Input
Amino acid sequence: MFDLLKRYRTALLACCLAFAALLLYSAQLRNRQETALFYKVILQITAPLQNLIDSSVESLANGWEHYLWLVDTEAENRQLLEANSRLKAELARLEEVRLANQRLRKLLDFKEKVALPVLPAQVVAEDASSWFRTVVIDKGSKDGLREGLPVVVAEGVVGRTLQVSPYQSRVLLITDASSAVAVLVQSSRSRGICRGEGEQLTLDYALRREEINPGDQVVTSGTGGIFPKGLPVGRVSANYQASYGLFQTVKVEPAVDFSRLEEVLVLLREER
Output
């Protein structure tokens, strides 16, 4: 402490003298109507020091106010970010509800067109392997399901129930290689069998003489005892006619986007 005072004693002495001079000048100024030359000189000498003190005090005050403003702003920004996150989550939830309502409305409209009792179900799992194309729904024998029931959505045919447990069922998709659906081409009334090829379908037994073009609608024919007549299966994506043979090769794009499958309807047909 004493070393510090010794080091800056000249500056401290000058500040003390200047401060004393300002006090003396202020006291004399109250009793004089005119300022003497001595006081004018003192005022001229001490004016820079006074300005420095005033500016330092003002800078400190402004810095403190700015610090308090930054603290308040940071807290306000944190509150706004939290509120923004909550609103985004709520918007995402509401958007999901809107999309679900949209899908359910389509299923409800489709239900009114089908002259069969239906059971809505939720897709809870899908087969991740490349060997089978199946999904699992959250309805089973306790809900009246059994093997071989058609499963559909508003866009068209999904598949049929393959394995049924009390509370869940496995559905074989029409894109599975072991799946076969009796169909007909709406424009030409050509009949055939749609079989799964993983992502697409192939229409077997379409005669070469039948006029089938890309874009033609393919629907269930009603034969086979599983799917009722007129359900959309897909559209012709391509067809090829070899130089020989009885049948032509027809590729069909499924009507259902199986990668976005969430809710389905199971058609409850009477057991024979």
In short: Residues 25 and 40 are 9 Å apart (CA to CA).
